[in-house]
Write a structure and sequence with these properties.
109 residues; alpha/beta; 3 helices; 31% helix
Length: 109
């Protein structure tokens, strides 16, 4: 089975929890023989995780797409970022609604 999973994070304080949940999901998929399409939507002050953009960032090494909310980036004085699996979207809430319409299941961190 292919799991279309959308992880949503809006607080920088929850980054370690996000990493833990991703590891748990990956472990589950291995044990249950599932595939996963994973997208992480970062909103609120969670986008500050990429304030000092580093190409060696561990989230960029994941097999996941990362969508940064442009509204949140602007609020924190961060320019839009487009790099490999990291992209800026117009609005995090819009990205979530589009993905949910496409059948993705969301998980709020």
């Amino acid at each position: 089975m292919k799991l279309k999973t959308l992880m949503i994070i809006d607080k920088i304080e929850r980054i370690e929890l996000l990493k833990s949940k991703i590891a748990n999901l990956q472990d589950y998929c291995v044990k249950e023989d599932h595939e996963v399409d994973l997208e992480i939507v970062m909103m609120g002050n969670a986008v500050t995780y990429f304030k000092d953009f580093d190409k060696d960032n561990e989230l960029l090494k994941l097999d996941a797409d990362i969508a940064l909310c442009n509204n949140a980036l602007s609020m924190h004085g961060i320019k839009p970022i487009q790099y490999q699996n990291l992209r800026t979207v117009v609005a995090g809430v819009g990205e979530i609604l589009v993905k949910k319409t496409e059948g993705w299941v969301d998980y709020l961190i």
